[in-house]
Write a structure and sequence with these properties.
Topoisomerase II, domain 5; Neuraminidase; four-stranded mixed sheet
Length: 817
Amino acid sequence: MAKKETPLSEGISKNIVPVNISSEMKESYLDYAMSVITSRALPDVRDGLKPVHRRILYSMSELGLTASSKARKSAAVVGDVLGKYHPHGDTAVYDAMVKMAQNFSHRYPLVIGQGNFGSIDGDNAAAMRYTEAKMSKMAGELLRDLEKETVEWRPNYDSTRKEPTVLPAAVPNLILNGTLGIAVGMATSIPPHNLGEMIDATVYLIDNEDASTEDLTQFVTGPDFPTGGIVFGQKDLHHAYASGRGGVVCRGDAEILEKKGGYEIVITSIPYRVNKSDLIVHIADLVREKKLEGIRDLRDESTKDIRVVVELKQGAAPQKILNFLYKHTELETMFHFNMLALVDGTPETLSLKRILTEFVKHRIIVVRRRTEYDLKKALEREHILLGLKKALDQIDKVIKTIKTSRDTIIAHANLMKEFKFSALQATAILEMKLQRLAGLERKKIEDELIEIEELIKKLKELLGSAKKILKVIKDELLEIKEKYGDPRRTRVIKGGAKILSDEDLVAEKESVLVFTEGGYVKRTDPGEYKSQKRGGVGVIDLDTKEEDFVRTLFHTSTHSDLLFFTDKGKAYQMKMYEIAEGKRATRGKSIMNFLSLADNEKVTSILPMTKELKQSKSSLVMITLRGIIKKVAGDAFKDVRKSGLIAIKLKDEDELLSTLFVNKGDEIILSTKNGQAIRFKEGDAREMGRSASGVKAMTLKKGDELIGADVIGPNGKQGEFLVMSTNGYGKKTALKEYKVQKRGGSGIKTMKITPKTGKLVVGHVVGEEITEIISMSKKSQVVRVPFLSVPKLGRQTQGVRIMKLREGDNIASLTCL
């Protein structure tokens, strides 16, 4: 016979209550979460303390560890806190006490520590058996009047004694020292502030109950971090103070100092909660990984004050390096306000006004309860003094009554019965010393009684007037300000911190761009090319591959935009500093690393677009190999997407040769490889759309083609036309020898072309500002010669040798400095 199954419910004990596991998990987790929120992680808005900090300070006060007393071992304090009030780990209690003693963690430390209490470098404090501690004077202000029944008390964890639920707190500690806490599902982050500013704001709020947060910010300029530094953004601060949430940019103080042989950056403060040692290690890592160049040495010269020295190499750009440190290290951080605290046991996000309002409410209660306590004690004393005075007035009868009584108890009863004394008065009379019978002693009792009666009157008046209570709060706050007020450590800058772009990390300086026929590009320092006499052999520039040669060479600022135009009529854009910097003898990198070019597409022209050009109303002129010209508005290429834009629509077998900027009234001069040149006004070519084909600029003879184009400005009559041939011959010719023609003509002779000179390769308009020229050959020979050493000759001459070329080499390009 099969065994009969027992229902599950029958197997459950009567002492076990079945519950739904989902509901039980939710309720248990919520209980745990609320315990963490209210009893561990979040501070109370009234005294700005979490339970562990409150218990540490109260325990120290019980041990008598005031600011004027002798310090005791930290282990004794921790043990007292654990045994009486905070049954958790000793490490948690000691760590909390250590933080309260650190002058880089708390703006106004609440504990005075003796021994190793850690450092801003992240060093741990010594073990609690080695250190000693006592309360600071500021902690004493938090505990002031605690003995006068000013706050509520509750049983400790084992109900053997009582502890305060909150401290009387004569200062708004929550906003003075700030706090950081992570609870369950919420967190708090409040920065420290200056005591003087915060008291001024509180006093103003007491006098002006309807004051807004905006009104209070005329006193509270911003956080005042113990580590100093700079805070940016008054608008961001006002938003954070009004809403309780927000973020502000914080920077450490850093100064660029000039010293013999170069510069150094000296860091004298760091942002709050930044580990100095980690910051230095991060900088060192950036240098080691070659992400940050130009640093020769990094030293920590800090003693009591912070001083980190970043020594720079000779020639390094100090502002560029400092900007890099701001952008890529903790020298600049964002401090996020999240002003969350417990109000009546409930977590709330608070504005600056709300925090100070809750503090004032707390102080009103404290002052009222303190006054009631003082009044009660004064009334008790008055009662005793009245009894003593009455007894002294009838001292003979009183003494007789006491003498005739059999014992103290009967004497006590007889005094109450015969003289109508209260029990307290009768006790005081029995305990009175005979010296009280002296005349002066009797006078003291009478004087004390008058003082007590006057005090009672004042205390009653104080309790009956809310305004007088507020005045007491104000006076006490101003007294504390006078006693502990100190100057701000953190500077507040009204404007927002400049968001550093990549451009800010690059020093603006002149640089030479070199681009080869094979598509290799680099930028280099102009100082790499030393000046030589005319006819010199030159120096090696970049290490080109066989049959590669330099096509373009010019100088511009590292912050300039570069417009790249290709033979296919497309335009691309990038910054000069984005081109990899290289030495004179290095090859550079392929342009394909920087631009998205097609396989059969070649860059034929590179145009630097400076800040001045962007602001002008210049036009762009494009010249093709077959003599076509097209003019477009300059702003058509201010923003070019990564994939490029169509710059000109080309006809079959034509290529885009050159692109240049022109202004209204300029003239254009074109030159061909067979030595022809034409000069015409820029107005002869009207502006067109980006995809148009253009119009004829010059009529070319069979076998001829354009090799260059240039612009003649307003002072063109005083300028010269510099030409150079493939075999290194060159000259200057006055521009006035070139008559202005109509666009589309065949031009006039500009150089006598012979087998000795070779074909024309360069044609440039030059002026008085040119001091030197750099010419480069196809095999990368470079010569830098004074401009005045190039002779001024007529149009139909062949020129003189500018550069002596090695066998099989030809001139590739020329640039003017």
